[in-house]
Amino acid sequence: MENNHACPPPSKGNLITILSIDGGGVKGIIPGTFLAFLESKLQELDGSNARIANYFDVIAGTSTGGLITAMLAAPSLNNAKQPCYEAKDIVPFYLKHSPRIFPCRTGILGWFFKILQIIKMIIGPKYDGKYLHKMTNDLLGDTRLKETLTNVVVPTFDVKCVKPTIFSTFKARSDTLMNARLGDVCIGTSAAPTVLPAHYFETVDYHTGSSRSFNIIDGGLAANNPTLVAMGEITEQIRQKSKEFPETKPLDYHRYLVVSLGTGLPEQDIKFDACRVAKWGIFGWFGRENTMPLLQMFLHASSDMTDSYVADLFKAIGCSDQLLRIQDRNIPIGAVPADLSTEKNLQGLVKIGENLLHKPLSKDDYKINYIETVPKDSRALTYAGMLTQFAKLLSDERKLRLQNMELDDGSKS
């Protein structure tokens, strides 16, 4: 069956499907690897035109995850029913553009370049963001939130209001002033403090003449793992009795099917201990071993708390098999920086993603996903195998929705 429609509404099926992608700069390569594999499995089941956006009711992304979300959900200029990028193109996209978004130097010149960057960070952001702005605008053009092929949710943080601002297709449909350009939203959610400049833009309602301004930085300050944010947006839609969603109680999570993709955490045995941290001043917290420990700890804590809440919720309602969280908790410390764009590091991130896909799940992986029944041959269970299972669930759900839509059309005629 060839897929040439956007995702049919969940009101026509049994499940509400969510894809969530963490923030992490160049480490977006890791979830990009998982998404390419998942889409390939969907194409094996439903034909070469199958795309991620055809199967998920909501795609949520923070920071680099927001950019991936846009790539998966923004309509192509050549075919409005298909996204501008296939999932298999995400990793090549990062390999091509990351070195220009986060320029770096190696060798002797590298030391002088690092010193200049340190000086820049004292008086402003590490990078000027010009290439990111141009690349994002070229990619997305004037596409707006309500024009996406499926619903998207992108967390940001407004520095003027000092509170999170959540952009979503849902809000854009009901409020013209929230119907921002997708490019502006992606630039804003990626503006990590000290790394990229904050982003200012305005939206205008030409019917009323009213306008709204946004002063946006990295959505990771609100939710580096946006799974709960996406669930909250859907809950509000159900509460408002949106026709798109099934008639059910707002907090009935039994219907949810969630795939949540992380961007990697550092090896356990190289994390900083209290004896070392106790001696740090401001430069220690913001620049240590090629990382920014304060920012890294903040983002990791945010992701881990969301992991815990969502996993406990799904376990409590007996639906652990409807949640898949993929997170590598043992990436080398050298791969942790979100802006390290050397060819060696980028290719290393590709290998991290590929290795995690195919290596047997560890005991920690079982705990994270609340897998209680371990197969006799524990080597048989990998994330590639689990994504294959989820691809079948997603395919079956889409087929059911399309069938029900055809039945409804037949009864009306």
Automatic annotation (TrEMBL):
<dbReference type="InterPro" id="IPR002641">
    <property type="entry name" value="PNPLA_dom"/>
</dbReference>
<feature type="domain" description="PNPLA">
    <location>
        <begin position="19"/>
        <end position="231"/>
    </location>
</feature>
<protein>
    <recommendedName>
        <fullName>Patatin</fullName>
        <ecNumber>3.1.1.-</ecNumber>
    </recommendedName>
</protein>
<feature type="short sequence motif" description="DGA/G">
    <location>
        <begin position="218"/>
        <end position="220"/>
    </location>
</feature>
<keyword id="KW-0442">Lipid degradation</keyword>
<dbReference type="InterPro" id="IPR016035">
    <property type="entry name" value="Acyl_Trfase/lysoPLipase"/>
</dbReference>
<comment type="similarity">
    <text>Belongs to the patatin family.</text>
</comment>
<dbReference type="GO" id="GO:0006952">
    <property type="term" value="P:defense response"/>
</dbReference>
<feature type="short sequence motif" description="GXSXG">
    <location>
        <begin position="61"/>
        <end position="65"/>
    </location>
</feature>
<feature type="active site" description="Nucleophile">
    <location>
        <position position="63"/>
    </location>
</feature>
<keyword id="KW-0443">Lipid metabolism</keyword>
<comment type="function">
    <text>Possesses non-specific lipolytic acyl hydrolase (LAH) activity. Hydrolyzes phospholipids as well as galactolipids. May play a role in disease resistance.</text>
</comment>
<dbReference type="GO" id="GO:0047372">
    <property type="term" value="F:monoacylglycerol lipase activity"/>
</dbReference>
<dbReference type="GO" id="GO:0016042">
    <property type="term" value="P:lipid catabolic process"/>
</dbReference>
<keyword id="KW-0611">Plant defense</keyword>
<feature type="active site" description="Proton acceptor">
    <location>
        <position position="218"/>
    </location>
</feature>
<comment type="function">
    <text>Lipolytic acyl hydrolase (LAH).</text>
</comment>
<keyword id="KW-0378">Hydrolase</keyword>
<feature type="short sequence motif" description="GXGXXG">
    <location>
        <begin position="23"/>
        <end position="28"/>
    </location>
</feature>
<dbReference type="Pfam" id="PF01734">
    <property type="entry name" value="Patatin"/>
</dbReference>
<dbReference type="GO" id="GO:0004620">
    <property type="term" value="F:phospholipase activity"/>
</dbReference>
